Amino acid sequence: AILNSDILHLRRADGRDLDYILHVNPGLAEKGLLMVYNPLEQAVSKTITVPLYYTGLTEWASVRERDGSANRVKLDREYKANLAVNVPARGVTWFLFE
Predict the structure, then answer these.
(1) How far apart are CA 40 and CA 42, in angstroms?
(2) Nearest 10 degrees: CA dihedral of 51, 57, 63, 66?
(3) pLDDT tens readout for residues 49-94
(4) What are the distances in angstroms from CA 89 to CA 27, 39, 40, 78?
(5) Which helix (H) or strand (E) element contains residue 24?
(6) How many angstroms separate the CA atoms of 6 and 22, rounded?
(7) How would DSSP label each residue in 1-14?
(8) pLDDT tens for residues 18-42?
């Protein structure tokens, strides 16, 4: 159901850095799904800021990468979370927010 929800384009796809979009739906148990793409020929590791306002999450978020274990992340006053991402060359990963 989260894949059929509203989409926020967080970084325009330009082929020079990570590209990412966020599916959001505050009415679901899975409030957000962040899809991260790496179009580069080398792996990228960086911290990105994810705005979670439209997910309905306010103070904390439970986030998991792919099928991994969930981690609790504190949101700032603007409902944003800093997320460390590691994406292989020409690869993709995703994060689920609950």
Answers:
(1) 5
(2) -80
(3) 999 999 999 999 999 999 999 999 999 999 999 999 999 999 999 9
(4) 34, 7, 6, 32
(5) strand 19-24
(6) 8
(7) -GGGSEEEEEE---
(8) 999 999 999 999 999 999 999 999 9
Which tokens sit at 23?
Answer: 């599916």
CA distance 98 to 95: 10
How is residue 91 written in tokens?
A: 């690869």
Token duo for residue 48: 């990105």
Residues 6+ apart with CB under 8 A from 14: none
Q: Residue 11 corresponds to which tokens in the numbers above?
A: 């970084």
What are the backbone dihedrals phi and psi of residue 36, each rounded to the nearest 5 degrees, phi first? -120, 125
Three-class DSSP category at 84? strand
Decide if 2 contacts 30 (C-beta within 8 A). yes
The answer to whether 62 and 70 have CB atoms below 8 angstroms apart is: yes
> Side-chain half-sphere of 18: how many Cα atoms within 13 Å?
22
Rounded Cα distance between 49 and 82, Å, is: 5
